[in-house]
């Protein structure tokens, strides 16, 4: 029986001297309630029955969600939802000692951490106006980190990141902000529409002016061409009649035959194109003779000029 008791005692002693520490964790041991040493990850040996593992400190990153309220300088309520990412500052013995013994448990540490961050953000928000908060996310985070770095270092931690995921206001403020944005958009739309209408009317007026100018130039050119055509026609008619009268004179024929031929051609033309309308013609022989004399005078002028 004595041998069995001794063997059992040895097994108990050996079993109590062996312990394992998980990866990403550091063991903190005490002897009679006083800090003794740190145990790294893996298999470790400790003084049996006397040395106890007081706490296993995780060196992995940890996160927490925050949900709190702050008041701005102009007395507007702001509601924050944030994500906090933190970890043990380093693996030095002093740091691990602070993590293990500064707070009674993790719950007390989280309460202190959350309240400290909330107080820091509330202090910053209290110096700003409601209209400025949405554009100050980065400034709020930087201010919190700057204020908490030294405090958290004394606790053995450091703040890795603070993300303000949601910033909201009271319903009345949110509604008024939406109305301001909508009115600004309507104002911008009206200004853009007015500018577009002005540009459209300006371009239309320019187009009308250009069209009128082009039309006027075209009409002027057409009138010039018509005038030149009429002048050339009259000139050719005069030359043709002069030449015909000259030939009639050389042939010892009466020049009135030319007018008679023109007369009959005109009657034929009137008959073809008159469409039954009544046309009155001056058939006075004296007028025909006067015309022939004028043609003969023109012919004599050309002869003298040559």
Overview of this structure, please?
This protein is of the alpha+beta class. The chain has 3 domains: about 1-60, no CATH class; about 60-170, Tetrahydropterin Synthase, Chain A (2-Layer Sandwich), CATH 3.30.479.30; about 230-305, no CATH class. It is built from 8 helices and 8 strands; from the N terminus they run H-E-E-E-E-E-E-E-H-H-H-H-E-H-H-H. The protein has helices at about 1-15, 95-100, 105-125, 130-135, 135-155, 170-250, 255-275, 285-305, and strands at about 20, 25-30, 35-40, 40-45, 50-60, 60-70, 75-90, 155-170. A 3-stranded antiparallel sheet has the order 3-2-5, with helices on one face. Strands 6-7-8 form a 3-stranded antiparallel sheet. The protein is rod-shaped.
Shape: rod-shaped
Strand content: 15-25%
Beginning-to-end CA distance, first to last residue: 171 Å
**CATH architecture level-2 label of the largest domain:** 2-Layer Sandwich
What topology, given as strand order, has the largest sheet?
3-2-5
Task: Specify the number of helices.
Answer: 8
Order of helices and strands: HEEEEEEEHHHHEHHH
Rg for CA atoms: 58 Å
Say what the CATH topology of the largest domain is: Tetrahydropterin Synthase, Chain A
Mean pLDDT: 80
Structural class: alpha+beta
Percent helix range = 55-70%
β-strand number: 8
Task: Return the domain count.
Answer: 3
Q: Could you name the CATH class of the largest domain?
A: Alpha Beta
The H-level CATH homologous superfamily of the largest domain, spelled out, is Band 7 domain
């Amino acid at each position: 029986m004595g041998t069995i008791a001794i063997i059992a005692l040895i097994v108990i002693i050996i079993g109590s001297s062996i312990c394992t520490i998980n990866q990403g964790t550091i063991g903190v041991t005490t002897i009679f309630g006083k800090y003794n040493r740190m145990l790294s990850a893996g298999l470790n040996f400790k003084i049996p029955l006397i040395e106890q593992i007081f706490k296993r400190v995780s060196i992995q990153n940890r996160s927490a969600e925050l949900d709190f309220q702050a008041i701005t300088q102009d007395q507007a309520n702001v509601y924050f939802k944030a994500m906090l990412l933190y970890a043990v500052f380093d693996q030095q013995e002093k740091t691990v000692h602070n993590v293990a013994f500064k707070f009674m448990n993790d719950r007390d540490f989280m309460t202190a951490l959350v309240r400290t961050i909330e107080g820091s953000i509330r202090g910053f928000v209290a110096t700003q106006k409601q209209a400025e908060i949405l554009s100050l996310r980065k400034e709020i985070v930087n201010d919190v980190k700057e204020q908490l770095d030294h405090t958290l270092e004394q606790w053995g931690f450091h703040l890795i990141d603070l993300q303000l995921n949601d910033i909201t206001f009271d319903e009345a403020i949110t509604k008024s902000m939406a109305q301001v944005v909508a009115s600004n958009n309507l104002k911008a739309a009206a200004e853009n529409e007015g500018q577009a209408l002005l540009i459209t009317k300006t371009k239309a007026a320019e187009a009308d002016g250009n069209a009128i100018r082009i039309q006027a130039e075209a009409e002027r050119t057409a009138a010039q061409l018509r005038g030149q055509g009429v002048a050339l026609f009259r000139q050719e008619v005069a030359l043709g009649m002069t030449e015909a009268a000259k030939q009639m004179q050389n042939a010892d024929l009466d020049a009135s035959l030319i007018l008679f031929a023109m007369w009959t051609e005109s009657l034929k033309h009137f008959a073809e194109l008159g469409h039954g309308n009544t046309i009155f013609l001056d058939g006075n022989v004296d007028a025909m003779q006067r015309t022939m004399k004028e043609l003969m005078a023109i012919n004599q002028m050309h002869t003298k000029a040559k």
